[in-house]
Design brief:
The chain has 261 residues and is mainly alpha-helical. Helix content is 79%, strand content 0%. It has 13 helices and no strands. Helix 3 packs across helix 13 (231-260), helix 4 (56-88) packs antiparallel against helix 10 (171-200) and helix 10 packs antiparallel against helix 13. It starts with a helix and ends with a helix.
C-alpha cells in the first residue's frame, strides 16, 4: 500500500469519526447515574433503559416506529422497484420527467411537505392513524428506492430478460425469476434506506401524529419540552442500535448473496 492510499484512508477515517463523534457521545450519556444529561457521565446505571422499557409512552413510541418502518420498507420497496423498472422501459424526456417527479419528496423541505399532508389528512380523517403514517412515510421513502434500484438497472443486461421470454417465460415470470434476482442488491439497499427514512422521520411525523399514535422521534421531541433526563439519551441509543443493525443486516445479506453466486 503506497503513501497516497494510506493518506487517503487515514483522511476518510478521520472525517468519518468527526462526523459520528457527536452521535456516539449520546451512548455513554445514556448510562449516566445522575438525572441530567452530562458528558462525561458520572457513575454507571441502567435505570434510564429500565425507565424506557417500563414507560408505556416510550415503549409504545418505539414499537410504533418499528412497525411503521417495517411496513413502509415493504411498501416503498415494492412501489419504488416497479417505478424504477417502468422508467427503465421509457427513454428521453418521459423518463426524465418521471424520475424527477418521483424524487420531489427528497427535494422539498419537510416542513412544507408536513403542512400539506396535515391539511390533506385532516380532511380525509387520516391524522394520527396507521394508514396515514404509512402513506406519508412511503411517499418519503419511495424516492430512495427509485434511485438505488435505478442505478442497478443502469448496469442490468436486458438481454437476460429477453432470453427468458424466448425460452417461453411470460413477462411476469421473467421479471420475478430473472430481473428481480439481478436487481436484489439495489432492492435491498432501497429497503434499508426506506426503513431508516421512516424510523428516523420526525418533522412530517409531528404534523400527522396524535396522542394515540406517536413514533419514537416524536415522543423524544415532546419529552424534551417537558423534562430532559437521560431517558432521551437511552432512546437515542436504541435508535442507533436499530438502524445500525438494519445496516449490518443489509450488508451481510448482500455479502451472502454474492458468495452464493
Amino acid at each position: 500500500m503506497n503513501k497516497s492510499r494510506v493518506t487517503l484512508w487515514a483522511a476518510c477515517v478521520f472525517i468519518g469519526l468527526w462526523l459520528v463523534a457527536p452521535t456516539l457521545i449520546v451512548i455513554p450519556m445514556s448510562f449516566n447515574e445522575q438525572r441530567s444529561l452530562a458528558f462525561p457521565p458520572k457513575g454507571f446505571s441502567l435505570r434510564w433503559f429500565e425507565n424506557f422499557f417500563s414507560d408505556a409512552q416510550w415503549l409504545g413510541g418505539f414499537l410504533n416506529s418499528v412497525q411503521i418502518a417495517l411496513l413502509t420498507a415493504v411498501l416503498a420497496t415494492v412501489l419504488g422497484t416497479l417505478a424504477a423498472y417502468g422508467l427503465s422501459k421509457v427513454k428521453g424526456i418521459r423518463e426524465s420527467i418521471g424520475r424527477n417527479f418521483l424524487v420531489i419528496p427528497m427535494i422539498i423541505p419537510s416542513v412544507i411537505f408536513g403542512v400539506g399532508l396535515y391539511s390533506l389528512f385532516l380532511r380525509l380523517g387520516l391524522v394520527g392513524t396507521l394508514p396515514g403514517f404509512l402513506i406519508a412515510h412511503t411517499a418519503l421513502a419511495v424516492p430512495y428506492v427509485v434511485v438505488t434500484v435505478g442505478s442497478t438497472l443502469a448496469a442490468y443486461n436486458v438481454s437476460l430478460e429477453r432470453a427468458a421470454w424466448v425460452c417461453g417465460a411470460n413477462k411476469f415470470r421473467a421479471f420475478i425469476g430473472v430481473t428481480v434476482p439481478m436487481l436484489m442488491p439495489g432492492i435491498l439497499s432501497g429497503a434499508f434506506f426506506a426503513f431508516i427514512t421512516s424510523f428516523d422521520e420526525v418533522v412530517v411525523s409531528m404534523f400527522i401524529s396524535s396522542p394515540y399514535l406517536q413514533t419514537l422521534p416524536v415522543t423524544m421531541f415532546a419529552g424534551m419540552q417537558r423534562e430532559v433526563d437521560p431517558t432521551i439519551a437511552a432512546a437515542a441509543t436504541l435508535i442507533m442500535i436499530t438502524t445500525t443493525a438494519a445496516a449490518i443486516g443489509g450488508i451481510l445479506s448482500q455479502h451472502l448473496k454474492r458468495k452464493r453466486t
